[in-house]
Amino acid sequence: MTQLERLRALQRLLDSAFRVPGTNIRFGWDAIVGLVPWAGDAVTAIVACAFLVQAYRMRLPRIVQLRILINIAVDVLLGFVPFAGDVADVFWKANARNLALIERHAARPQPARTGDWLFVAGVAAAVIALLSLPLIVLYWIIVRVGSSW
Predict the structure, then answer these.
(1) What residues make up the domain containing 82?
(2) What is d(CA 116, CA 105) in angstroms, rounded to the nearest whole number?
(3) Structural domains of the chain, count
(4) What is the pLDDT of residues 39-82, one digit of tens each?
(5) From its phi and psi, is residue 79 left (phi > 0), alpha (psi between -120 and 50) or beta?
(6) Would the pTM count as exceeding 0.90?
């Protein structure tokens, strides 16, 4: 069994091992283990790092490796929200996204696509905005309090 076949099996196990009866909605152990607050999401994130390790071993472009890491991080952050995070696990399917990235770039070594760069840039911009928000609020409070004196 090749490493990509192992990753495909892991992805099926984590994202689509089970089906909701009467629907096409599939879920895996990621959503089930994620029901355990904090620890479940941490465990599945550690397991999901197998995709990142394989991307590194295959010498995929660093931007693709970063995108895989961001997919894992989004999955973990969504998982921190009780119940809604578990529902998000059913639809986000970070492992399927990461496997698709690996397969796309492993078939023929190719440079990262514009979409990869835009995705990473968008996430970076969102993180910067979120980190800046408390500073903006603090500035606004200081200006309001200072003008009333």
Answers:
(1) 3-111
(2) 11
(3) 2
(4) 888 899 899 999 999 998 888 888 899 999 999 999 888 888 88
(5) alpha
(6) no
